[in-house]
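A quick aside before the break. I want you to see a complete sequence-to-structure record at least once, exactly as it would be stored in a machine-readable document. Don't worry about memorizing anything.
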Amino acid sequence: MNQISIKLSLLIISFFSFNTQAQTISSRVLDSVTQEPIPYVTIQLNNKGVISNEEGRFSLLINNVVKVTDSLIISCIGFKTIAKPLNQFKDSVIYLSQKTIELKEVVLTNKQYSVDEIIKKVKENIEKNYNFNLTRKRLFFRESNHQYLKRTNLTLKKSTIDALNKSFLDSAMQSIPRKNSYYIEVLCDLYGNYSKEKQKINLIKASELYDKNNEIGLTALEEKFKKIIDKNVKPDSYFKIKSGLFGQKLDMDELKGEEIDSTDAIELKKKLENEKKSEADRKVNFAKHRKNSLTNMLDGLFFQEKTKLNFIRKSGRYEFEILDLTYMGNEAVYVISFVPKGSADYKGTLYVNYDDFAIIRVDYQNVKSVKSFKLLGLSFNQFLSKGKMIFSKGKDERYSLQYLEKEEASRFAVKRPLKIIEKNKNVKGRRKQNELSMKLDMAMSSTNKNQVVIFDTENVTASKFEGVKEDNAMLPTYMPAYDPDFWKGYNIIEPNQAIRDFTIIAE
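That is the input. The structure line, written in tokens, reads:
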């Protein structure tokens, strides 16, 4: 470590947790009055920044050229901005004071705008205010998924295979995890603009956090089911699966999967080659899926032409109201609420810069189900769709995305009969060999939350963008429990308490 870093660590060790390798500072931001954490606070050091998480926690990477006199700038809408050299911070918690604004504090124009005039100017200035250029964005992406099995009732009507009895089926239902959480975290460079066709991704590091025991339990059940099938079902049979009015044919080979004779060298070599190709495909697909997720999120920004968040593009469908005038740093900001007039889907709050009419933050939530259907014993309801967008102004006076969050929740249920019939056309007499008939009654809910924090945005030329080669030969590192050391040395959005507490309990 160089002399500057040594001095810095000695000066702020009482305030920050400082790692000698990763060189990060970590703290928590609280409201000075309520003592409650302040989420989504912007923390900047030498024009590089992070966003605090929903619990007010943040970590910021310090590079080797940092000086003890460099200022840490902490700002949030509605609070007084703190800007002090690192060596002037003394406490382990940062407190922000709420800031009120009076109209006389603002340099008023000759005309006081109505809320409709403000929204009109927001629309007129979109192209001027936001950065639509090709850029390289260094970002951290976290996907959190939680599934909850609410109901698993299975009534056996008929089974001609003794092993597929009520006891086995009840055991199968019990082996399905009642609760499951899954986290993916990715640090990457995303190249492009806001067009779906203009996106390239290069992964830097990735992790996945979940309980593999759930996977093992289902695999064991699958193996047990295959053994029953192998013992009781003829090799040249096929299955007819019927549920109500619908039917589907399934060949025996599809159900059993591919089996390889361990003494057949040619077949073993072929299997190993297929596994190697499968591993390569997994790496490509992992990166591709992350890119698609990010691209879809960017395609949903409020200023996009075909966005579902159409409260600006189709403002006539909404009612707006000025709630307040406050500050974001040294900038005056209108606080404007919006609600649907009729059939529109969302309500929320806009934070609009007083001078240039740029929306610097959006908080939104649906007011009715986003998607739903109920047909022939199947039902689906996406009852939650909410999120936020935060933008920051660059040196070119244009705004770039700094933080993006999207959360969705849904319920799925099935309540209908199910028949699995074994048939064989090579057996004399009746083709029907065996039958399993049951009534299935299951319900589950799912919550998915995506968070993106962008630490650095730089414009790139078209030729540089075309020259970027996607090289994504990596899979995420599996973690059975949260590891605070995994992301040391990198900027991320701090994990919440649920992630910190995640660990697999051995049974």
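Two observations worth writing down. The domain at 3-99 is CATH 2.60.40.1120 (Immunoglobulin-like). The chain has two domains: 3-99, 129-475. We'll return to this after the break.
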